[in-house]
Amino acid sequence: MPESSPETHVIDFRAAEQLLAARDPRGAIRLLDSVISAHPENTAARLLRARAFFLAAQLRPAELEFQIVLEREPDNAFAHFALARTLERAARPDEALRHFRLAAALDPRPEFIQAARFARDATDATDNGDRAPGDTAPKNAPGRPDGDAGPE
């Protein structure tokens, strides 16, 4: 086996990215194990390995890796989102929702907002005739999108 060096770890990391893109998460995990052994502080390698665990349906190891990333980078919206997907897949929806909402608060990407159910909560409230949170105008009030805007 060739000797490990920082250069071989970079090559292994890049190869793991390619394997993950080619839908070979187990191959990516094998390469990343040596990278993380040599560089346990490398958050990018841990995040990539967490994604590989997730794609390999190894949910507990994926959860642990995402948690390590979040201990180091609590403002990493993607890690919150990916941890939430992992928890959701593990049938832990309440824990998942918390991380979906953290991801959406940190980065308001449409997919994060949708997963956090912020948009749906507001829509559900107005569909049922109730007001959305923070909406003080009564339903059908002038100037509301669903109300009479006044004389034509």
Secondary structure elements and their pairing?
Layout: H1 6-21, H2 25-38, H3 43-55, H4 59-72, H5 77-89, H6 93-106, H7 110-116, H8 118-127
Helix pairs in contact: 1-2, 1-3, 2-3, 3-4, 4-5, 5-6, 6-7
If you had to describe this structure to a student in words, what would you say it looks like?
66% of the residues lie in helices and 0% in strands. The N and C termini lie far apart (81 Å). The chain has helices at 6-21, 25-38, 43-55, 59-72, 77-89, 93-106, 110-116, 118-127. The protein folds into 2 domains: 1-58, no CATH class; 74-129, no CATH class. The protein has 152 residues and is an all-alpha fold.
Number of domains: 2
Rg measurement, Å? 22 Å
Helix content: 55-70%
Find the structural class using helix and strand composition.
mainly alpha
Give the overall silhouette: elongated
Task: Calculate the terminal CA-CA distance, rounded to whole Å.
Answer: 81 Å
Say how many strands there are: 0
Number of helices: 8
Spans where pLDDT lies below 50 across 5 or more residues: 121-152
Instruction: Estimate the strand proportion.
Output: under 5%
Order of helix and strand elements from N to C terminus: HHHHHHHH
Main sheet properties: none
Q: Which whole number gives the mean pLDDT?
A: 83
